[in-house]
Amino acid sequence: MKEKGLLIVLSGPSGVGKGTVRKQIFSHPETAFEYSISMTTRNPREGEVDGVDYFFKSREDFEALIQQDKLLEYAEFVGNYYGTPVDYVKETLESGKDVFLEIEVQGARQVREKFPDGLFIFLVPPSLSELKNRIVTRGTESEDVINNRMTVAKEEIEMMNLYDYVVENDQVELACDRINAIVVAEHCRRERVEPRYIKMLEVE
Ligand code: 5GP
Fold first, then answer.
1. CB of residue 103 inside a 6 A radius of ligand 1
2. Does the C-beta of 75 come closer than 6 Å to ligand 1?
3. Residue 190 maps to a domain
4. Domain housing 153
5. pLDDT at 61 over 90
6. What is the CATH number of the domain that holds 101?
7. Could you tell me which residues are annotated as the binding site for ATP?
8. Of all protein residues, whose CA lies closest to atom 10 belonging to ligand 1?
9. Could you tell me which residue ranges the Guanylate kinase-like domain spans (predicted)?
10. How far is the CA of 74 from the centre of ligand 1 (A)?
C-alpha cells in the first residue's frame, strides 16, 4: 500500500505574507508538494487568474458546495467565503503526495479537527507595526478594510497555540527555508517512518 502524503497547513494573520511565502515556495522547481487552490467569493484582484490563484465562485455556488459537503473547511473572512475543495485534498494525499494549504485561522482550526496528524505551521510578522505596513503598502484595500483586517489579525495571533510550528516572516526566503526544513523533519518523524519498518520486519 502506498504511503499517504502529508497535509501541510500554512496559516497566520491577515497580511503576514502567507501568499507571498507560498508563491515563493512553489516557484522553486524542487518543491515536491501540491498546492490546493482554494475557492472564494471575493472578486479577483488585478492579475489574478481563475483556476490558478483561486477558483472564483458566486455566493450561490459557494453555498451549494457547502451544502454538498464538498469543502474540507471554509470560513467567512472580511465579508467573503474562502474554502478548500475536499476531493482534491483527499485524492492527492491518497496518491502519496504532500498537499499544501494556505488558509486563514478559522479554516485551519477545522482542518486540525479532521486531520489531527497534519502539519500546522503558523506564520507570524516580526511586529504588529510591520504587519500594518504590509497591509497598507499592498494598496489594494480601503481604510475600512485595512482597520478591519488589523483587528482580525490581532485576534488571529492569539490562536498560535493551535499550531505545531511558528515561523517568523522576517525575510521571505528565510521563512521558506524554515518551512521546507520543517517539512523534511516532519517526514523523518519516528511515528511516520516506523509503520513502514514494522511492515518490512514482518516480511523478513
Ligand atoms: P486574500 O483575499 O488576501 O487572497 O485572502 C484572505 C485570507 O483568506 C488569507 O488569510 C488567506 O490565507 C485566506 N484563505 C485563502 N484561501 C482559503 C481557504 O481555502 N480557506 C480559508 N479558510 N482561508 C483561505
1. yes
2. yes
3. yes
4. 7-36+97-203
5. yes
6. 3.40.50.300
7. 12-19
8. 104
9. 5-184
10. 9
Distance 181 CA to ligand 1 centre (A): 24
Residue range 176-200, pLDDT digits in tens: 999 999 999 999 999 989 998 999 9
Q: Is 31 exposed, middle or buried (0-12, 13-18, 19+ CB in 10 A)?
A: middle
**What are the pLDDT digits (tens) for 23-43?**
999 999 999 999 999 999 999
Dihedrals φ, ψ of 147, to 5°?
-60, -40
Residue nearest to atom 18 of ligand 1 (CA): 83
**pLDDT, position 1:** 57
Closest by Cα among 185, 2, 6, 4 to 101 = 6
- Please report the DSSP string for the chain in residue order: -PPPPPEEEEE-STTSSHHHHHHHHHHSTT--SEE-PPEE-SPPPTT--BTTTBEE--HHHHHHHHHTT-EEEEEEETTEEEEEEHHHHHHHHHTT--EEEE--HHHHHHHHHH-TTSEEEEEE-S-HHHHHHHHHHH--S-HHHHHHHHHHHHHHHTTGGG-SEEEE-SSHHHHHHHHHHHHHHHHT-HHHHHHHHHHHHHH-
